[in-house]
Design goal:
Largest sheet: 9 strands, mixed
CATH superfamily of the largest domain: Zn peptidases
Structural class: alpha/beta
Number of helices: 15
Shape: elongated
Number of strands: 20
Distance between the termini: 31 Å
Number of domains: 2
CATH class of the largest domain: Alpha Beta
Helix content: 25-40%
CATH topology of the largest domain: Aminopeptidase
């Protein structure tokens, strides 16, 4: 992210202005003439919510907020207004703009800026000839009396974390295998200030992480198991919050091979959960949140090489559970099972796993929500749900009824890794639940993690879904103490 967000004690002169105004109020934008002010207010009366005054090389954009809607809807509408504002900003190519809050609402102006910054993301690292009109200001000065420098720093850190997560998801396997992913985690840790330990194949074998090793058998590249930790001096929690991310850097489906169109062709995104965990640690550490957080990422690719696991194999997991593997494309749960068992040693207050786990989640609720399940974590989930509405990364709670346990019983092992055609998302969650012994929330981001076309500030490709959700959740938890 190349744009710096800074607090301004005055409204800057001589720079383009993006204003936040309220519907029904008499809007007075500094620097505009009486006729321009009259024009803006007439447009607001007619119901326009985005008005632009072009002043020959300079401009003023006025985003109008409808305060009669629920707050969560107001926030999301302002984020989505970024689409129209972004076009104006790019056209005028000014190195600095000012964001001016005329209604003194720090939450709303933050949403407007957040959308504007996130919509500017581009993954053009490998494009040799960049677009000539991909300009965006290098500085946004924010005038809002009730928005402090700490708030702006947090907003900037979260946006930067989303950028980093998107970059990880968009990297192709040719440039980001499991070892490379772990190295990126080290770089992020060094930048933000969290600790990173990476276990290599030898260590993973000595620990007998059978799920991770089984998926890796078809790969020429070694697996990794990354442990990231942010532990401030005086955390609000005696026991850590542990985040677990699926790190399948590429998923062919193994011998249960995926079709290519609209399936295997974008499976570089199957490590989006891992990217979310790393992005969240980056945001939390950058903001110096007083919360002890640990991130766990088991990583490998899933390929159908000569020694790959086959349907019908039985493997032994890290905790000793035997698993009958009936579909090698249900591999993410094998990695996560090992990591969830490993998490027990921390005696965690809560464990959240996040993964692009099942196509059934996409089929169930599309790209606009995250499938969630929980065990013994009702109060935690209530807080997470609040964050979901606040960030518009909403969660939908699915059941984990005991009847679903019957669907993953095996005749020749303790459990099997698929449950059949029905309730695929839930039986995947039920498989993961087997390895938990603590308050636990499961998030399946298969729908929103990677988009085939942009949805305003959720750009095409990797979206960084989950970073804003978890960062907000941990911030709320820290503030409640």
């Amino acid at each position: 992210m190349d744009t710096v967000l800074v607090k301004s004690e005055t409204i800057p002169d001589g720079v383009p202005i993006v204003c936040l105004a309220g519907k029904g109020s008499d809007v007075r934008v500094p620097g505009l003439s009486a006729s321009e002010t009259e024009y803006i207010n007439k447009r607001i009366e007619k119901g326009d919510d985005l008005i632009t005054i072009n002043r020959l090389g300079n401009y003023t954009c006025v985003a109008v907020n409808d305060g009669s809607k629920p707050v969560a809807r107001q926030l999301e509408k302002l984020r989505k207004m970024s689409s129209g504002i972004h076009q104006v900003v790019k056209e005028h190519e000014h190195p600095e703009i000012a964001a001016v809050d005329l209604i003194n609402d720090p939450e709303l102006i933050s949403a407007l800026i957040e959308g504007l910054v996130l919509i500017n993301y581009r993954f053009d690292k490998y494009v040799t000839k960049k677009e000539s009109r991909n300009f965006f200001p290098s500085r946004i000065s924010i005038y809002c009396p009730y928005l402090g420098e700490e708030d702006i720093a947090r907003l900037s850190s979260v946006c930067e974390a989303v950028y980093l997560a998107r970059n990880l998801v968009n990297e192709p396997l040719s440039h980001l295998n499991a070892t490379g992913l772990a190295e990126r985690f080290r770089e992020m840790g060094a930048s933000a200030g969290f600790e990173v330990e990476v276990m290599n194949r030898h260590k993973i074998e000595s620990l007998r992480m059978g799920g991770l090793l089984a998926v890796n058998k078809g790969s020429v590249d070694p697996p990794t198991f990354s442990v990231m930790e942010w532990k401030p001096d005086n955390p609000v929690n005696d026991k850590p919050v542990v985040l677990v991310g699926k790190g399948v850097v590429y998923d062919t489906g193994g011998l249960s091979l995926k079709p290519t169109p609209n399936s295997m062709d974008y499976m570089k995104c199957d490590m989006a959960g891992a990217a979310t965990v790393a992005g969240t640690l980056y945001a939390v550490a950058s903001c110096r949140l007083p919360v002890h957080v640990i991130g766990l990422v088991p990583a490998t690719d899933n390929r159908p090489d000569g020694n790959a696991i086959v349907p019908g194999d039985i493997i032994s997991m890290y905790d000793g559970t035997t698993v009958e593997v009936l579909n090698t494309d249900a591999e993410g749960r094998l990695l996560l099972g090992d990591a969830l068992s490993w998490a027990r040693q921390y005696d965690p207050a809560l464990v959240i796993d996040i993964a692009t786990l099942t196509g059934s989640a996409l089929a169930a609720i599309g790209t606009h929500g995250i499938v969630a399940m929980q065990k013994d974590a009702e109060k935690w989930y209530s807080l997470l749900e609040e964050s979901g509405y606040h960030t518009h990364e909403r969660t939908v709670l699915f059941p984990l009824w005991e009847e679903y346990r019957e669907m993953i019983k095996s005749d020749i092992a303790d459990i099997k890794n698929i449950g059949g055609k029905e309730a695929g998302t839930i039986t995947a969650g039920k498989f993961l639940e087997h390895f938990t012994s603590y308050p636990w929330i499961h998030l399946d981001i298969a729908g929103p993690a990677f988009l085939q076309s942009a949805e305003t500030y959720r750009t095409k490709g990797g979206t960084g879904t989950g970073v804003r959700l978890l960062a907000d959740f941990l911030y709320r938890y820290a503030m409640k103490g």
